[in-house]
C-alpha cells in the first residue's frame, strides 16, 4: 500500500488539556488550519508533537483525533518512534489500523545501536505493518545517526522502508542518498534552515512545523522551486529564514505553541520539562510574525 508523499508535510503540535490528557478539540483546530492552508500531508506525533512525552493512551488518542480531523483530505504520516522495538511496533500497528498512510520511525537510543540492531528494528516494524515507513534520521534528538549507506541499504532490503527524512542539516548526505539509490529513494528535508538548498537538490518535500505559523510562504517556496523560479524562491526563503532559525533554536513545541497563541489559536503549554516561551522570546516571535 504505497503513498506518494511530496511537498509540504505539516507537523501539528499536541495541545494538552488542563490537568492531563490531550485537548482533542484544540488538536482538531490545529490540524484543520494546516489542511485548509493547503499543506500536502499531515504528520502528527513528530518532535513538534512531543511524542517522547506521551503515554500510550495519549498516543492512541492523538492518532485517532488526527485521522478523524484530516478525514481523508490528505495523507497522514504518524510518528511512532520509541526506545523499544516492542512499543514502536505497537504504535505502528495502531496507526496502521487507525488509517494512517505511513509511519515515521527514528531509532531512539540510550545505548549506542549497531547497524545490525538498527536494521533489525526497522525490519520488525516492516513485518508488522503493510504501509510505508519513513526512516527518520535526526541524531540531535534520537541519539542515533544513520549514514546514507545504511538508509539506502534498508530501502533496498526492507520491504516497507520507502522514504527518508534527513534532519542533520547536512546537504551532502541528501546528495549521497540520491546518488547511492540512483534517484529512487525519495528524501525529505527535516532541517528548516536548510530547506532552500534541500529542495534545490531534489528533496521530495519539506517536513516542517513552520506552516502552523506562516503557511503560505512555505507553500509558495515549494511551488516556486518546483517551477524553477529560483529568484522568487530565494526571496521567499530570505523572508522566512529568521522565523525558521528562531523556532528551531527555541525548540519547536515551545516556539510553535507560543506562536499559535499569539495568532489567537490556543494550543496550551509544552509538557514539562519543557517550559513555555519566556517574555523576551514571545516579543521576538511577535515581531517575526509581524503582529
From TrEMBL:
Q: Name one Pfam family in it.
A: DHDPS
Q: Which residues form a coiled coil?
A: none
UniProt keyword Acetylation, yes or no = no
User: Per the UniProt entry, what is one GO biological process?
Assistant: N-acetylneuraminate catabolic process
Question: Which residues does the Swiss-Prot or TrEMBL record annotate as the active site?
Answer: 136, 165
Gene3D superfamilies per record: Aldolase class I (3.20.20.70)
GO CC aspect terms: cytosol
Q: Kindly give the InterPro entries that the UniProt entry links to this protein.
A: Aldolase_TIM, DapA-like
Keywords, sorted A to Z: Lyase
Q: Does the keyword Lyase apply?
A: yes
Q: Which GO terms describe its molecular function?
A: N-acetylneuraminate lyase activity
Q: Quick one: which residues bind pyruvate?
A: 48
PANTHER family reported in the protein's UniProt record:
N-ACETYLNEURAMINATE LYASE
Please state which protein family the record places this protein in: Belongs to the DapA family.
- Record protein name field: Dihydrodipicolinate synthase family protein
Which species does this protein come from?
Answer: Mycolicibacter kumamotonensis
- Lineage of this protein's species? Bacteria, Bacillati, Actinomycetota, Actinomycetes, Mycobacteriales
Amino acid at each position: 500500500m504505497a503513498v506518494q508523499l511530496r511537498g509540504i508535510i505539516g507537523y501539528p503540535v499536541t495541545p494538552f488539556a488542563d490537568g492531563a490528557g490531550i485537548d482533542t478539540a484544540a488538536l482538531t483546530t490545529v490540524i484543520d488550519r494546516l489542511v485548509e492552508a493547503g499543506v500536502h500531508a499531515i504528520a502528527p506525533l513528530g518532535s513538534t508533537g512531543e511524542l517522547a512525552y506521551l503515554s500510550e493512551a495519549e498516543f492512541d488518542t492523538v492518532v485517532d483525533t488526527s485521522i478523524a480531523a484530516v478525514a481523508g483530505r490528505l495523507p497522514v504520516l504518524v510518528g511512532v518512534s520509541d526506545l523499544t522495538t516492542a512499543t514502536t511496533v505497537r504504535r505502528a500497528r495502531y496507526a496502521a489500523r487507525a488509517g494512517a498512510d505511513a509511519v515515521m520511525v527514528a531509532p531512539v537510543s540510550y545505548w549506542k545501536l549497531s547497524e545490525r540492531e538498527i536494521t533489525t528494528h526497522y525490519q520488525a516494524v516492516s513485518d508488522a505493518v503493510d504501509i510505508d515507513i519513513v526512516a527518520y534520521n535526526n541524531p540531535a534528538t534520537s541519539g542515533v545517526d544513520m549514514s546514507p549507506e545504511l538508509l539506502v541499504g534498508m530501502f533496498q532490503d526492507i520491504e516497507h522502508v520507502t522514504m527518508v527524512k534527513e534532519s542533520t542539516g547536512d546537504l551532502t548526505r541528501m546528495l549521497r542518498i540520491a546518488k547511492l539509490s540512483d534517484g529512487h529513494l525519495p528524501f525529505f528535508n527535516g532541517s528548516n534552515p536548510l530547506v532552500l538548498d534541500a529542495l534545490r537538490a531534489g528533496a521530495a518535500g519539506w517536513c516542517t512545523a513552520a506552516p502552523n505559523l506562516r503557511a503560505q510562504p512555505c507553500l509558495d517556496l515549494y511551488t516556486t522551486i518546483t517551477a524553477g523560479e529560483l529568484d522568487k524562491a530565494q526571496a521567499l526563503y530570505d523572508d522566512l529564514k529568521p522565523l525558521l532559525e528562531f523556532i528551531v533554536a527555541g525548540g519547536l513545541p515551545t516556539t510553535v505553541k507560543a506562536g499559535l497563541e499569539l495568532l489567537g489559536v490556543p494550543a496550551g503549554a509544552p509538557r514539562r520539562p519543557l517550559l513555555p516561551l519566556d517574555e523576551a522570546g514571545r516579543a521576538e516571535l511577535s515581531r517575526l510574525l509581524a503582529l
